[in-house]
Amino acid sequence: MAIASRQAVITSALVVTGNMVGAGILALPVNLGPAGVLPALSGIVLMWLLMTTTAIIYSEQKSLVQSETADLPSFFGSELGTAGKWVSIVANLIILYGVLVAYLAGVASIINHLFHIDLPGWVTTVGYFAFATLMTSFGAVVMARGNAVLMLLMWGTFAMLVFMTVPTMSATNLGFSDWGFLPSGLPVLITAFHFHNIIPTICRTLKQDRRAIRTAIIGGTSLGLFMNIVWVVVVCLALPLSGADDSVVYAFRNNLPATIPLAEMIASPVFMQAALVFSVVAMTTSFMANGTALLSFIRDLTSTYLGVSGMKLVWPLAFLPPLAVGIFYPDVFLIALNIAGGLGENLLFGILPGFLLVRYFPKGSFRHRLGLFLVAAFSAVLIIELGQEFGLLNISPDVEYWTAHHVQP
Question: 360 Cβ partners below 8 Å, 6+ apart?
Answer without folding.
Answer: none
